[in-house]
């Protein structure tokens, strides 16, 4: 932490290097000093408490290939992880690195935003905690200030009644997604009693969508509801267009990924 | 920024004493400083996979790691696959037999990718192999023969360890 403080002005930390070194190879990033977190074993851990999963910032993506805890959360994380890049990149890239890099299409950022994670940020002065709603500030921008590092992520568990869904579309397997949706539903007597919905790739950062959640509660868990809420989602986002897809195309995709992720969550919740 | 650091890398069980800039990536250090040019460099940003090597048994992109970060790890490259007497590794033999290569530029990366993955999970299904092979790029083969080769090698390797 002292090293990080001393180099706050011109230093960067390196985690998996799967975004940073790529940027450095392009000479997009040229840090003067790199502080390597790979030797800091205390940051590579997964801890389970009764209500939470606590993930050390240096936990590699690959750690989630098999469920890391019982119940919907462990299953959800293992469903999401194959969508992140490719196997060799998952062997090296980290959960904390993804959150700090804060790509608009980062799967882990959508998980953190949708499930209301709390980020533990450390510095030579001590630790502070920041909820996901205040952590993501914009594309590639977070609440982590120079001289600070992300230490751990606290994810609230979902109890057994929840079903979860995740769906993303990318041009080629392993590419950053053009649109993705993460959902969690509780279904009682055919009707939706609680909902979580988050989107990625279609805004400046991954976001929890309270309006979509409100639109779901009380409705029947049917394909019609999911299509309708998907359509609503497409009107609420204002994606940017680039060579991978126009804004209009991404808006249409939003409707599709939301509907598909909702159907998956409903299936799981009623299974 | 031309200061160098003295490091020792353990590559295929042999120790290499090098003096490298901290900025030098592992792929370049293997090629330029260790003289092991089997590891190829295509894109330098993690996409093509030509530079895939094993670090402590796990397949990683050597273009996205600095050589200084690999000190103290066990590195394996394509040069370490065949045995001393020249007998090919089952994966190399299968790539040969099933025409899993044409120009060969991508081949070391695919071999190391598959070696790492099959070591972690010797029971890979066809779907898992397809997913795995999507990690790397090949401009020649159309991938089908690579899939066939990895499948065949997986079966040979499993038979070898069981029997
Ligand atoms: C070909 C390819 C495809 C990819 N596809 C995807 C994809 O589909 N989805 C996806 O989400 N990602 C994808 N990635 C990115 C990958 O997931 C990275 O691993 C991730 O974005 C960054 O994690 P890292 O550990 O490698 O961080 P690094 O690259 O080491 O660091 C990234 C940034 O975060 C900072 N940082 C890292 N850790 C900390 C910390 N603990 N505290 C403070 N700052 C920190 C660094 O200083 C740097 O600015 C892809 C990468 C490649 C090369
Ligand atoms: S050169 Fe490393 S992935 Fe292309
Ligand atoms: S054989 Fe030529 S790139 Fe794969």
TrEMBL record, chain A:
Keywords: FAD, Flavoprotein, Oxidoreductase. GO terms for molecular function: FAD binding; oxidoreductase activity. The keyword Flavoprotein applies. Coiled coil: none annotated. SMART domains: CO_deh_flav_C. Residues 1-160 form the FAD-binding PCMH-type domain. The keyword Transport does not apply. InterPro entries: CO_DH_flav_C, CO_DH_flav_C_dom_sf, Diverse_Substr_Oxidored, FAD-bd_PCMH, FAD-bd_PCMH-like_sf, FAD-bd_PCMH_sub1, FAD-bd_PCMH_sub2, Mopterin_DH_FAD-bd. Signal peptide: none annotated. Pfam families: CO_deh_flav_C, FAD_binding_5. PROSITE patterns: FAD_PCMH. This is Carbon-monoxide dehydrogenase medium subunit. It comes from Bauldia litoralis.
UniProtKB/TrEMBL annotation, chain B:
It comes from the Bacteria. The keyword Oxidoreductase applies. GO terms for molecular function: 2 iron, 2 sulfur cluster binding; metal ion binding; oxidoreductase activity. Pfam families: Fer2, Fer2_2. PANTHER family: OXIDOREDUCTASE WITH IRON-SULFUR SUBUNIT. InterPro entries: 2Fe-2S-bd (IPR002888), 2Fe-2S-bd_dom_sf (IPR036884), 2Fe-2S_ferredoxin-like_sf (IPR036010), 2Fe-2S_ferredoxin-type (IPR001041), 2Fe2S_fd_BS (IPR006058), Beta-grasp_dom_sf (IPR012675), Diverse_Oxidoreductases (IPR051452). Residues 5-81 form the 2Fe-2S ferredoxin-type domain. This is Carbon-monoxide dehydrogenase small subunit. Keywords: 2Fe-2S, Iron, Iron-sulfur, Metal-binding, Oxidoreductase.
